[in-house]
Every structure is written in C-alpha cells, then in structure tokens.
Design brief:
Blueprint lengths: L18 H15 L5 H14 L9 H9 L3 H18 L9 H4 L7 H14 L7 H17 L3 H126 L1
C-alpha cells in the first residue's frame, strides 16, 4: 500500500547504505535484472526496496528510482507489488499458481478467502487449467455483484415497507402538487382576465384622452387666434386713430387758413368796390 513516504524525500537521517544494505540491494536488483524471472519475485524485490528505502542513496523517491533504474512507471511497480501480495496468499493453498501478473491483478483488494475461492474456480473452469486475466476479472465481477446485491428476507421486508411508505408519501406529494398547480392555474387565469379587462379600460381611456387632447388643442388654437386678432385690431386701431387725429388736425389747420384767406379776399373785394364807387 502506498504511503506519503513513497513520493516525499526520504526521512532517513543518513542516506548512505551500510554494507549489509548494499549487499541486499544488489541481490534484489539482480532478481529484477535477470530477465524478471517471475512477476512474484520482481514484486517482492520492489516491495522490499520500497519498504526499506534502499533506493535512498541514489534517489529521493521510490517513483524516481523505478523510472530511472528500470524504466517503469509508479503504477507498473505497484502492480508488481500488489500481485506479489496476492501470490503469497494463493501459494499457501492453491495447487496451481498464476504465472502472469495480469492473472492476479483483478484479485487485488479482495479478502484473502475470496481471492483463493475465485482463483480456484477460475482454474477449474479454464479449458487447460490456465485461466486468463479476463476470465478472472469476469469471476470477480460476478462475485462482487452477487455480494453487493444479496439481501436477507428481513432486509427485503424492511426495504419493502420503506418503499411502500415512500411511494405513499410520493403519491401524496404528487396529489398535493396537482392541487397546487390547478389552484395556481385558476389564479393565473383569473389574473390574466383581470389584466385583459384592465388593458381594455386603459386603451379606452387612452383613446378618450387623445380625443380630449385634440379638443383642448383646437380650443387653445382658436383662443390664440382670437387673442391675436384682438391684438391686431388694437394695434391697427391705435395706428389709424393716430393717422386720423393727424389728418383732423391738418384739416382744421387748412380750414383756418382757408377762413383767413377768405377774410382777406373779402377785404380786398371790399376795398376794390370802395375804389370803384369813388370813381
């Protein structure tokens, strides 16, 4: 199982390996290097190197060691380690053990007894006694599915009762929702009719206001015209009255001048008559 130490720097105070550790590291690396004889031996070797941090003299993390030393990713290394753990469990009882890592990969994480049961069933059902990884995976899926779906009669009865209560509650909720929706629909219909009536009234009021405005506008226009006419009449009257007064004064002056001239003329005639009488 991976821990935080697998990806963090080594917490060993001394990164140097002692003679015994170096010798053991060489033995373990020989197992890995010599053709990776079996995934089981490789997994055990990698697991011991990881647990004892035998990589610490050259690498800070186990991941870096696997990548640089063996060219394998962290996931691959842990697949070997997990497979080795499964193999240790199977070797204790099974008479025919897996030969490939992918045969035991599906068994990872299962209880020890279930690992053995599934492997034995896979061996017995395989035509040549050598099950494939896919066959083991199918058995794992079937077993896990049956374990998770199995129910006792008591559990089933309890679940049945809970489902009945839940269904009754849901039916009541649906009925109440239907009533609420019908009530809401009626309210919406009434509100819609009210708004339509209000719309009609507003349109009628708007038309009447337009008519009243046109009437008021016509009245104001006529009033302005009358005021303008009155102002014009007053201006014309004032202008002509001045002219009439001027003409009247001129006529009066001319009349006076004419009277004076007439008087002079009569005086001249009288003198002429007097002169003629003396002759």
């Amino acid at each position: 199982m991976s821990t935080a130490n697998d990806i963090l720097e080594s917490d060993y105070a001394n990164a140097q390996l002692d003679a015994g550790e170096k010798a053991r590291l060489e033995e373990l690396e020989a197992v890995i290097e010599q053709g990776l004889q079996t995934f089981y031996e490789v997994g055990k070797a990698l697991d011991e190197i990881r647990e004892k941090k035998l990589y610490r003299e050259t690498h800070k993390t186990f991941d870096a060691y696997c990548r640089d030393k063996w060219g394998i990713a962290r996931r691959t290394a842990y697949q070997f380690i997990d497979a080795a753990h499964v193999m240790e469990n199977l070797c204790a009882i099974a008479h025919k053990i897996p030969t490939k890592e992918n045969q035991v990969r599906p068994l990872k994480g299962l209880p020890s007894e279930l690992q053995i049961q599934i492997w034995q069933e896979a061996v017995e059902s395989a035509p040549n006694g050598i099950p494939t990884g896919a066959a083991v995976q199918r058995l794992v899926d079937r077993r896990v599915s049956s374990r998770t779906t199995r129910r006792t009669s008591g559990d089933a009865s309890e679940e049945l009762g809970q489902l009945r209560l839940e269904n009754q509650r849901l039916k009541e909720q649906l009925r109440q929702r239907d009533l609420d929706r019908e009530r809401r629909a009626a309210e919406v219909a009434a509100e819609l009719e009210r708004l339509r009536e209000e719309n009609r009234q507003l349109k009628a009021e708007l038309r009447q206001r337009d008519i009243d405005w046109e009437r008021r506008l016509a009245y104001e226009r006529e009033k302005i015209r009358e005021e303008l006419r009155a102002e014009i009449r007053e201006e014309v009257k004032a202008e002509y009255e001045g002219q009439i007064n001027t003409l009247t004064a001129q006529v009066s002056s001319l009349t006076q001048q004419l009277a004076e001239m007439t008087a002079k003329y009569e005086a001249v005639l009288a003198r002429l008559e007097a002169i003629e009488g003396k002759k």
